[in-house]
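Appendix B. Chain record.
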Amino acid sequence: MFSWLVFVNQKLVLLYRLYGQPTVDHPKKLTG
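Structure tokens predicted for this chain:
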């Protein structure tokens, strides 16, 4: 159970790093 929560947490962190930072660095890139 704990390992599953850690697994999901890591995935959320990766998604946040992939889609969270680029929006701040290059907002025009995602909007077009």
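Further analysis of this model is presented in Appendix C.
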